[in-house]
What does this fold into?
Amino acid sequence: MHPTPVITPPPQCILEPPDLPDAQTEMEEDPPVKQSFKEILMDKNKELNENYIDFLNEASIPDDVDPND
It folds into this structure.
């Protein structure tokens, strides 16, 4: 009979405790990232809305209406 091999934990298990503070730091840094991402979405949405309004204006301007009005 061979002796039972000693099961050593994978390196990830050993590294878990040091990683916890990093994860907490990442969570603290999240709101600014979310804010900038939200700003990107808002800018993109505004751009799309402007393009859509321009498209509607170009597509359907009655002759008797001033487009600059």
Summary: Residues 24 and 30 are 10 Å apart (CA to CA). The chain has a mean pLDDT of 71. The chain is about 70% helix and 0% strand.
